[in-house]
Amino acid sequence: MQSIKSIQKIIEKELQQFFNNGYNQPANLYEPIRYILSIGGKRLRPTMVLLACNLYNENIISAIPAALAIETFHNFTLLHDDIMDNSPMRRSQPTVHNKWNNNVAILSGDAMSILAYELIAKVDIKYLKSVLEIFNKTALQICEGQQYDMDFETTADITVENYLEMIQLKTSVLLGASFEIGAIIGGADKTEATKFYELGLNLGLAFQLQDDYLDTYGDAQTFGKRIGGDIVSNKKTFMLLTALQKANEKQLRELQFHLNKTMIPDEEKIIAVTNIYNTLDIPNIALQKIDAYFDKSAQIVESLNLTQEKKQFLAEFIQTLNGRKK
Amino acid sequence: MQSIKSIQKIIEKELQQFFNNGYNQPANLYEPIRYILSIGGKRLRPTMVLLACNLYNENIISAIPAALAIETFHNFTLLHDDIMDNSPMRRSQPTVHNKWNNNVAILSGDAMSILAYELIAKVDIKYLKSVLEIFNKTALQICEGQQYDMDFETTADITVENYLEMIQLKTSVLLGASFEIGAIIGGADKTEATKFYELGLNLGLAFQLQDDYLDTYGDAQTFGKRIGGDIVSNKKTFMLLTALQKANEKQLRELQFHLNKTMIPDEEKIIAVTNIYNTLDIPNIALQKIDAYFDKSAQIVESLNLTQEKKQFLAEFIQTLNGRKK
């Protein structure tokens, strides 16, 4: 088994090698692609591909193209999402549409998604069709998730279930696909690969709910974002939707008051809504939900057809991703 | 051999079947896709795929997914190009970003490009890798062409050669790929398939230059667009770039005057620039260039390893596409 650090090193090197050889002209098409890939991120998804492969196969070279494809596709979705969300910054750097313009961002994103498929085309012919099918299905689901996310902004009566379905599409399925594709290329059988998909799905839900939780209850320093942003923007997260569901008439009026008024100072709104959350036990409900997804993940790891040593390695990797337990 | 009409009928039926079964929710993602596909177009590219296949194989069913993939991808590029060009109308109908909004147009375009790959994934495994590679290379070139096209708007000193390279990327390579992929799936050997690619490339250049020519010298009724649009918008077409290259000092001053002034009424500008074109023999130069590409196409058809009857069939199909000779 390669260490996670060594896997991450391989990813950085291979990403550089692929994108820094060729793909030069027109510069307005290819520079934004190198730019968004260079401003980092944790390379979580390609790490998951190579790790899953490595659990079944000492040789992970054959999984590199798929790992890069998934990282490329993920960054493409961020690039286009940033246009749609009108976000000026990402990872403390100007977004592509902000640094260049919308047209450059649309088109370089389009090119980036095609480059992801150029990488998929390098997958061993033995696995090409099945990897391509998983990749396509997942990519389309991510678009569906983003559309639901945008639709939800202007839709009343979104339920917690709607929200969970949306985040599953928007973020979890790609984690599922990363693990599954890695396992397939590593030579795992269908049952094992499907378990890996489920594992990624549960982790994705846990991560997203954790992100929601930390947005209100995290430490600004560790979280890396301003606390309370979701509350200020009325984002229909698990926390807010659960609160709306659980609130009595008086609490509901108070919540609605804060959601509808635009003249309240941000800090005041954050404190007021957080207080309602606290009264309704929302933080505990959220933590229980997150832990349930982590528990389910642990069960899936345990059920895999791997040595105890390898299961332990995988469990430890997952542990490092659990933001509250680092 | 199937008739062109029968091929076109198959395409319409199969497009409907693919896009009208499933792909329903979220509606804001999938409705725009059905919409842009429903407002027509000549289905030229999928016709080319099936025709090329049919020249080598009585059975064209196996080429249908690739044909639909190319039509889907083509319409995706139109959808995104319309956002970038800020075009309110296409084929006399509102464009997607105009009928919905920019975000819907970006995301449904993204989904559409993925759906093209879902169709590619249905290609027989025997040809999947090579078809996917051609498709990827072509798709990326189309993005490059669109970026050059946008770059050229704000770049001085664009040459005729730059322009020809740009239109080759933006429009011709997909016609080349349509023929080539069709031939490959039909079972043609590499030499034949490459010839088909070259054939599509030459036809694409001929069509685009013909479009440029007709934009100034066409008949508004048959051309379907207002005559002189390219002149009004200062579009750096083959005509304008050749004129700028051939003009003497006085003519150049006059041309530049019309390009730089914004206060001249459109009709006056069209007449003045057309007069300069006429003086410089631009219409004849353009027609010669177009005919050279059509002649080259005819030579390639002649060189194919097909019966005279089939060559004749292909030549007649090409003839129907020659706008001036209908």
Short summary:
Chain A has 326 residues and is mainly α. Helices cover 76% and strands 1% of the residues of chain A.
Any descriptors?
homodimer, 326 residues, mainly alpha, Farnesyl Diphosphate Synthase, 2 domains, two-stranded antiparallel ribbon, 16 helices, 2 strands, 76% helix
Write structural notes for this entry.
Two copies of one chain form a homodimer. With 326 residues, chain A is an all-alpha fold. The first copy, chain A, has two domains: 1-184, Farnesyl Diphosphate Synthase; 189-321, Farnesyl Diphosphate Synthase (Orthogonal Bundle). Helices cover 76% and strands 1% of the residues of chain A. Chain A has a two-stranded antiparallel ribbon. The longest helix of chain A is centred in the middle third of the chain and has 29 residues, at 125-153. Chain A is globular, with a radius of gyration of 21 Å. The relative contact order of chain A is 0.09. The mean pLDDT of chain A is 95. Chain A binds chain B through residues 25-26, 28-29, 80, 83-84, 102-104, 106-107, 109-111, 113-115, 117-118, 120-121, 125, 128-129, 132-133, 135-137, 139-140, 143-144, 146-148, 150-151, and chain B through 25-26, 28-29, 80, 83-84, 102-104, 106-107, 109-111, 113-115, 117-118, 120-121, 125, 128-129, 132-133, 136-137, 139-140, 143-144, 146-148, 150-151.
